[in-house]
Amino acid sequence: MRAAQYMFPHVRIQTCQVHFVENIRRALQTRTEEKFRPFLTDIVNLLFRKKITRPDFEKKAYRIMRRYEADPVVFQYMLKIDSYTGLLTAAAEYVGAPRDTNLIELYNSHLEGRLKSIKGFETFRTARLWLNAYILRRRYKLFTDCSRKFKYLNGTNSIGRTKKRNGFLPSLFH
């Protein structure tokens, strides 16, 4: 996060809500212990089911905190959620911004799969060239398998969707 803010001073950071909740779930052992399941259900349903604005998030979090204020463990988690509120609600400020990192994870797992088949690079320069080519190819490749609400993306590519309106886009992979 600090590296991103250093390189891009005006960047908005969004913490992955799915991973944030999973960390709480794991710490409270709600898959095996019932004690904290109602609390987890409340935070998932009220705070993390969909994108909500910061004021709505804060109001709902306050109601949850009041409901569980007698439990010191839950109270500590609510304080942690409160300290992350800005990072957990940043996506609500942007239409179409995801509240999780699933797309990034998909991209990374694809890259990892490609790198497994490569035994190594001769030099750092060849590794850099290969990675640059890989990223360019991925950014220029047309979407073909999108379904449901993302079906409209088929036939377009990520670099074309992110360039400025009248920006020139050279054809590199035709």
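Second entry:
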Amino acid sequence: MAKTSSLLRLMSWLSPVFPTGSFAYSAGLEQAIHDSQVDGPETLSQWIKAQLTVGALWNDAIFLAQAHGCATNREPLDDLNELAVAMTNATERLNETIKQGTSFAEAVGNWLKEDQQLPPGTPLPIHIGWASGHSSIDRSDAIAAFQHAFTSNQLQAAIRMGILGQKGAADILVILEPVIETTAKKAASSTLEDLGTCTFLVDIAAMKHESLQPRLFLS
């Protein structure tokens, strides 16, 4: 029953109906579609995979893992938070992770004690890692669920922008399942020395989106 409770809690926190406002963000995907860098299922799958394995979501997975450990030793948390903010590579991406983190913290207060709340300005993956650690949720499971939620949000955004349908989204989920599983296990045992990205086109798209008009998404 403890395992089931942990699973249900994780599913609740990363559900699309959990009030984090994730539906409003595309993490630069809208710009990539506008520029025809992403134009169908194949390029979309590659775009998401790059973020999960060597992009911002890889760094987020490491920050989540480190924050998970802070549940038993809070001392590194402030430095971890500062580093996560510093490594966010575009203004909109920073707003995305901070605002979603704030919304997540407000909602997750139903599960955490008052003295377990994190300060404003804390990025989303640190909030999730911290809450998962306090709830005895497996670190690798928390990372996998976080990356799966990001993937699902990217697919929903792509559907809204008309470059694939629900069947195409399901096909991509099948392709990315083993990627998420492998990446989550790797990130769970990684350290801050493993931080780093090489997704230049994704980063540029996130920066260019700041001036895109008209647009559907905040990032």
